[in-house]
Write a structure and sequence with these properties.
The structure holds two protein chains of two kinds. By secondary structure, chain A is an alpha+beta fold. Chain A is 16% helix and 48% strand. In chain A, strand 17 and strand 18 form a beta hairpin. The chains are: A alpha+beta, B alpha+beta.
Chain lengths: 246, 14
């Protein structure tokens, strides 16, 4: 069995919105501890991983299941969430459906057909990074949007004094500098000066659900995939994006 | 010009 109740459907919508920009389908691995899922995007450039501890739910009851879901359908349903709706997710094993219920003045139940997916063997690899930057999510997101004016990729640079988001177009370029003591930077731990290029569309998709108050942890190295971590609605999200290499 | 690598290439390289 599986049944979980979340306080805010609207908050969880941000998670589904973000994940569904990168993936078409997902297999939730549900057990008594919570829910996990990870998968590569179809082009194998990005990896998405999410973890929903049972504490993120008001009520939670589950034994082990793999629940395969079409994310386009899930996103459409979550877009119907209203601000005071509670979210109930429950597995209907007889009908082979995942029920998504919005509870407010009444109950609205959407039943999604389960996909026959098996849990991904792809997990976030345990890579050691020389540099870890904690930055206010909206500051980083805005810098990416600025960079998007002139280029389709962005260069992320870090040294012991600052973190820099740089974009170079054919004619124009953009630079956002976040000094170590600026209010956007929570912490800047740099062991090795770094400069790496990443696709902007992917990065912007990865931070789609971020709003002011959210903090992003950026793991950066030279010629390494960038790793982003943040939490939304009690859900821990991790993204890995392969670099562009000269 | 830089070239997009895949995560799978990257993990194989390591």
């Amino acid at each position: 069995m599986f049944r979980g109740v979340m306080e805010s459907a609207k908050e969880f919508k941000k998670v589904v919105d973000t994940v569904s920009t990168l993936l078409d389908e997902i297999c939730f691995e549900v057990d008594e501890e919570g829910i996990k899922a990870s998968a590569m995007d179809p082009s194998h450039v990005a990896l998405v991983s999410l973890e929903i501890p049972r504490l993120a739910f008001e009520e939670y009851e589950a034994d082990s299941h793999e629940i395969g879901i079409d994310l386009e359908a899930f996103k459409k349903v979550m877009n119907r969430a209203k601000s005071k709706d509670k979210l109930i997710l429950e597995l209907d094993e007889e009908k082979n459906k995942l029920n998504i219920i919005f509870e407010n003045t009444g109950k609205r139940k959407f039943s999604l057909a389960l996909l026959d997916l098996s849990a991904s063997s792809v997990k976030v690899p345990d890579i050691e990074y020389p540099n870890v930057i904690m930055i206010k999510g909206d500051a980083f997101k805005e810098a990416l949007k600025d960079a998007d004016l002139f280029s389709d990729y962005v260069i992320l640079k870090a040294d012991e004094d600052k973190f820099v988001v740089h974009a170079k177009g054919d004619l124009n370029d953009f630079n956002a500098e976040f000094e170590k003591d600026s209010s956007a930077i929570i912490s800047l731990e740099v062991k090795e000066e770094t400069k790496s290029a990443f696709n902007l569309d992917y990065l912007m998709d990865m931070v789609k659900g971020v709003s002011s108050g959210d903090i992003i942890k950026i793991y950066l190295g030279n010629d390494m995939p960038v790793k982003l971590e943040y939490s939304l609605a009690g859900v821990n999200l991790t993204f890995l994006l392969a670099p562009r290499i000269e | 010009k830089s070239k997009q690598v895949k995560l799978s290439d990257f993990f194989k390289m390591r």
